[in-house]
């Protein structure tokens, strides 16, 4: 049976380190502050926002909450972002996605000052990651690198396959693995002979959004399997993109869902908030 990578424990370890740092900053008179904006009342978004605020509270980061009605116009949202960009007491700005369909997400993301872009979605942050410069990194892939490192799993020189090429997970994930000196392949819905490609991976990262799609036929014996997916199965139970029961016996390490990648995303958001202070000084 594989080693189960405990994202909950590792994320708590990171949050405790951040708590210490936040206390040190506070002693220097700096109260790290995150502004969280939600437009509308999508129930899944409300859960994410609540968990992010809870994370802030745990670590000692001040969170400012902006819960705007669903009919808020793009101009109103942009003007709030401009105001927050200009406030010296606000270090990070997070706009919870998805936004209602009348608001253009790209325009909103571009409006955030890149020095406050704690989600790492601004084109400047993505570009910086691409050419190895300082900037915010998208939280989920950054969290996966921490999961691997803190579990003692070496990345350099390994064959890594990232299944999925989204802007928030797959693409930044592959860039981060490259930065860690892995040999990286990105697979997607147009990849031919998918099982053959994923079967080459020493480390397989799965972010497809398809419940339990990855069974043991996709996995090399002894591989490390990281499951990013958050789905509901036929019984409405949370599950990943990997069929855990089927894959765990053949791999060397695996993340569960829930309790794997999920908690790391918030820990890395809080980490980005702490880093934002030095980017702004
Ligand atoms: P997207 O839907 O944006 O991207 C899915 C990717 O998977 C696409 O690149 C798509 O290929 C590829 N894909 C879809 N079906 C197949 C298939 N049958 N074979 C091969 N490739 C396929 O998803 P996200 O990246 O946003 O999210 C992925 C999963 O991760 C979701 O379950 C989401 O809920 C979860 N998630 C979890 C987070 C966490 O904190 N744990 C954070 C963010 C996401 P193509 O590009 O060709 O269409």
Bound ions, cofactors and other small molecules, one mention each: NADPH dihydro-nicotinamide-adenine-dinucleotide phosphate
Mean pLDDT over the residues: 97
Uncertain ranges? none
Give the CATH superfamily of the largest domain. NAD(P)-binding Rossmann-like Domain
- Strand order in the largest sheet: 1-11-8-7-5-6
Could you describe the largest sheet, including whether it forms a barrel? 6 strands, parallel
Q: At the first level of CATH, what is the class of the largest domain?
A: Alpha Beta
Q: Helical content, roughly? A: 40-55%
Q: First CA to last CA: what distance? A: 48 Å
Query: Helix count?
Result: 10
Q: Supply the number of structural domains.
A: 2
Shape: globular
What is the structural class?
Answer: alpha/beta
Strand-residue proportion: 15-25%
Count the beta strands.
11
Rg over C-alpha atoms, rounded to the nearest angstrom: 19 Å
């Amino acid at each position: 049976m594989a080693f189960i990578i405990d994202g909950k424990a590792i994320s708590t370890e990171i949050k405790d380190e951040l708590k210490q740092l936040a206390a040190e900053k506070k002693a220097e008179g700096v109260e790290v502050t995150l502004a969280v904006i939600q437009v509308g009342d999508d129930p899944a978004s409300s859960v994410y926002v609540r968990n992010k605020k809870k994370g802030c509270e745990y670590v000692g980061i001040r969170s400012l909450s902006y819960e705007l009605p669903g009919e808020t116009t793009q101009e109103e949202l942009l003007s709030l972002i401009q105001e927050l960009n200009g406030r010296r007491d606000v270090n990070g700005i997070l706009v919870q996605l998805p936004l209602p369909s009348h608001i253009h997400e790209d325009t909103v993301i571009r409006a955030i000052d890149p020095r406050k872009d704690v989600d790492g979605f601004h084109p400047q942050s993505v570009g910086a990651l691409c050419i190895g410069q300082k900037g915010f990194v998208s939280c989920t892939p950054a969290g996966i690198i921490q999961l691997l490192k803190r579990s003692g799993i070496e990345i350099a020189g390994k064959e890594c396959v990232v299944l999925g090429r989204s802007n928030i997970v797959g693409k930044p994930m592959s860039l981060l693995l490259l930065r860690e000196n892995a040999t990286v392949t990105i697979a997607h819905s147009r990849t031919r002979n998918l099982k053959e490609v994923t079967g080459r991976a020493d480390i397989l990262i799965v972010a497809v959004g398809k419940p339990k799609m990855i069974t043991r036929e996709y996995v090399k014996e002894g591989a490390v399997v990281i499951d990013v997916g958050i789905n509901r199965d036929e019984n409405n139970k949370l599950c990943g993109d990997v069929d855990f029961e089927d894959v765990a016996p053949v791999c060397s390490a695996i993340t569960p869902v829930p309790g794997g990648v999920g908690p790391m995303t918030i820990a890395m958001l809080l980490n980005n908030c702490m880093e934002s202070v030095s980017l702004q000084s």
